UniProtKB/TrEMBL annotation:
Gene Ontology molecular function: carbohydrate derivative binding; glucose-6-phosphate isomerase activity; monosaccharide binding
Protein name: Glucose-6-phosphate isomerase
Naturally occurring in which organism (per UniProt): Garciella nitratireducens DSM 15102
Family matches, as CDD domains: SIS_PGI_1, SIS_PGI_2
Similarity section: Belongs to the GPI family.
Length: 447
């Protein structure tokens, strides 16, 4: 009864994995001895044990206060500053949680802003919440990222108009760097409640810090159990022997498959509530490995939905991909297929069975079909979908990603490529200091 990793459909031979041991050992040493590229950003490895306990209590208190005085929490952040929280909240909440009356739910409704620059999206959210009691949690390590900074300016203004400057202060929670950046300065000036994004945690490895924990706790999810799962994962995935460590097996096999021409990895699940977990996973691997002309392109699919769209290209398209399937053994809820006297749809052969049983047959059938189509399948199974296994799975993927990046020979903890679009956008918007680039870009756009 634990998270398991099954590579019996990976289309590799056992000796290939064994031959990765030296590389696994080297990557393990780089990560654990903190001597690899980007080692300043490996604080997440021990974080489920070393986190600031006093701050954790403040996070819980803030979540309780939000639940008492607000119906909605607007979480403002982008990339690693929002994806983890959204992944956990959507995975562990009712599928239609926003429509559930507050009296019947454990926490507040959490909406996300500052993760795009769409005026329509922002206007819709502003219209939706202005009649409701709400708080905001702005999350930005640098404190200067454009998307959340714009959204924060607008929501702060709305809060101040609604509750006055003093009232608004009680409803603004800031998660940012301990010392640096515009948001930290603002906290000091205004006295907002604030939490720290520790130095050793890059955005995409920060979900188990206040970055993820405040929104997750405000949504009514048990963060103690989430951390329990992560702590057990620290222990379970620390053996450098690839034969004994499922997390390292996953990292090694991704690299084996990549060297055999598999350029695309598809994260697959059969539960729609995992859609944002897939987004978090895509950022984790994409930003960590996609550099220096290397990296597996992380894609995702939700089955059986996408078997009716992407299924064709996975089965019969270019032979350059593999799938990583997350399967939940015992889903929390189920529905039985009723018997129909008429049987006009011909479905009585499955009457009395449940949706989850049919889903499982879809999973097994798809697995074999895709393997027959030369698509290796890696399977991660969890006994059930709860806080504990969510915490464990988060750590499993984070550690696999760090190890996998080191095997690939990249720095898994930086993201230099993210800057290129930002510079161009600043220049085109006329940010002071970008005048020369602005005229060059305007010339190019005219063509
Ligand atoms: O993983 C990362 O480091 C990035 O995705 C950042 O989280 C993202 O760019 C947001 O940055 P910031 O928290 O500084 O606003």
């Amino acid at each position: 009864n634990n998270l398991t990793f099954n590579y019996s459909h990976a289309l590799i031979q056992e000796h290939e994995l064994e031959e990765m041991q030296a590389q696994i050992q080297a990557a393990h040493n780089l990560l654990h001895q903190k001597i690899g590229a980007g080692s300043d950003f490996t604080g997440w490895v021990e974080y489920p044990h070393t986190y600031d306990k006093e701050e954790y209590i403040r996070v819980q208190k803030a979540a309780e206060k939000i639940k008492k005085d607000s119906e909605v929490l607007v979480v403002i952040g982008i990339g690693g500053s929002y994806l983890g929280a959204r992944a956990v909240i959507e995975s562990l909440s009712h599928s239609f949680s926003h429509l559930i009356p507050q009296k019947n739910r454990q926490g507040v409704s959490v909406f996300f802003a500052g993760n795009n620059i769409s005026g329509s999206y922002l206007k819709d959210l502003l219209d939706l919440i202005q009649e409701k009691d709400f708080s905001i949690n702005v999350i930005s390590k640098s404190g200067t990222t454009t998307e959340p900074a714009i959204a924060f300016r607008i929501f702060k203004d709305l809060l101040e108009k609604k509750y006055g400057k003093e009232g608004a202060k009680e409803r603004i929670y800031v998660t940012t760097d301990k010392e640096k950046g515009a948001l930290r300065k603002l906290c000091e000036k205004e006295g907002y409640e604030s939490f720290v994004i520790p130095n050793g945690l890059g955005g995409r490895y920060s979900v188990l810090s206040a970055v993820g924990l405040l929104p997750i706790a405000a949504a009514g999810i048990d963060t103690d159990k989430l951390l329990d799962g992560a702590r057990d994962a620290v222990k379970e995935y620390q053996d450098a022997d690839v034969k004994k460590n499922p997390c390292y097996q996953y990292a090694a096999i991704r690299n084996i498959l990549n060297r055999k021409g598999k350029e695309l990895e598809i994260f697959v699940s059969y539960e729609p509530c995992f859609n944002y977990f897939a987004e978090w996973w895509k950022q984790l691997f994409g930003e960590s490995e996609g550099k220096d002309g290397k990296g597996i392109f992380p894609a995702s699919a939700s089955f059986s939905t996408d078997l009716h769209s992407l299924g064709q290209i996975i089965q019969d398209g270019k032979n350059n991909k593999f799938e990583t399937v997350v399967w939940v053994k015992e889903p929390n809820k189920d529905v039985e297929i009723i018997h129909d006297k008429e049987n006009s749809d011909g479905l009585n052969f499955i009457s009395g069975k449940t949706l989850n049983y049919v889903n499982k047959m879809a999973f097994q059938g798809t697995l074999l079909a895709h393997v027959d189509g030369n698509v290796p399948n890696l399977i991660i199974e969890i006994p059930k979908l709860d806080e504990y296994y969510m915490g464990k799975m988060i750590y499993f993927f984070e550690k696999a990603c760090g190890i996998s990046g080191y095997i690939l020979g990249v720095n898994p903890f930086n993201q230099p490529g993210v800057e290129a679009y930002k510079k161009n956008m600043y220049a085109l918007l006329g940010k002071p200091g970008f005048e020369e680039l602005q005229s060059q870009l305007k010339e190019r756009i005219k063509k």
